[in-house]
Amino acid sequence: MSLFDLTGKVAIVTGSTRGIGRAIVERLAEHGAKVVVSSRKIEACEEVAGAINARHGEGRALAITANISSKEELQHLVDETVRTFGRIDALVCNAASSPHFGPLSSISDEQFRKTLDNNIISNHWLISMVAPAMRARKDGAIVIVSSIGGLKGNNVIGAYNISKAADFSLARNLATEFGPDNVRINCIAPGLIKTDFARALWDNPAFLKAYNARTPLGRIGDPDEIAGAAVFLASPASAFMTGQAIVVDGGQTIT
User: Fold this and answer.
1) Given the DSSP bridges, would you call strands 34-38 and 140-145 parallel, antiparallel or unpaired?
2) Is 211 a catalytic residue?
3) Other CB atoms closer than 10 Å to residue 109's CB: what's the count?
4) Superfamily assignment of 2-254 in CATH?
5) Long-range own/partner contacts, residues 22-26 (CB < 8 A, 24 or more apart)
6) Which of 9, 223, 235, 237 is the most exposed, fewest CB within 10 Å of its CB?
């Protein structure tokens, strides 16, 4: 267990009140971390943090709201975490937006900008806020939840895929900058996961049947099946890994 031991570490996970984010924050806590649960609504944050504290002891989870489109709210998230826990050892940028479903020819400028701002720029903001202290301590782990969409083309979620491809590049470039200070940054690239965020895809029986037929494991994933990759990337087990992407997709991209 020592390779995956996060005892004494402090982790922020954005978009962590449901789906992949919730699974990640719960598993990080299970492996010993103190965790910050964050999303836009305080009631949802407090519900998840309360469940974690009930399971692992009071003080293990903290609820802090933040809208990723607001630089000020992200700074508040970082400041309150440091004020309460004293430091940030791991950051998981999980929250994202996909406001348009259809071909790129039909996307509005506002929708395109929102996708890029929330899925790329907000990650850059938040990483820039936590990285200086990590670099000063010569220790830190940053994880961006990207998508296999960043490795492929798609005629209905093209803008989302473009933003997720940019996240891979963001991680690679920041890894070269942060590496000398022993701060690692990696991506997770999930395939189709059964979350509310991806409901428009998996709730379509014809699409789901075709998708599963192209997937070696023959099914879509569960949020908890992504959480293990996040625990790995936040823990000493991945100490020699940076600038990379772990694909967790049931084999869908190999066919």
Assistant:
1) unpaired
2) no
3) 7
4) NAD(P)-binding Rossmann-like Domain (3.40.50.720)
5) 22/48, 22/223, 23/223, 23/224, 23/226, 23/227, 24/92, 24/94, 24/145, 24/226, 24/227, 24/230, 24/231, 25/52, 25/61, 25/92, 26/51, 26/52, 26/227
6) 237
What residues does each domain of the chain span?
2-254
Contact 119, 99 (CB under 8 A): no
Q: Taking the model in full, what pTM does it have? A: 0.95
Q: Which two tokens stand for residue 158?
A: 């093209």
Tell me which of 125, 160, 197, 211 is the catalytic residue.
160
Output the average pLDDT for the chain. 96
pLDDT tens-digit series, residues 167-218 = 999 999 999 999 999 999 999 999 999 888 777 777 788 888 999 999 999 9
Residue 108 CB-density burial (10 A; 0-12 exposed, 13-18 middle, 19+ buried): exposed
pLDDT band at 43 (very low <50, low <70, confident <90, very high): very high
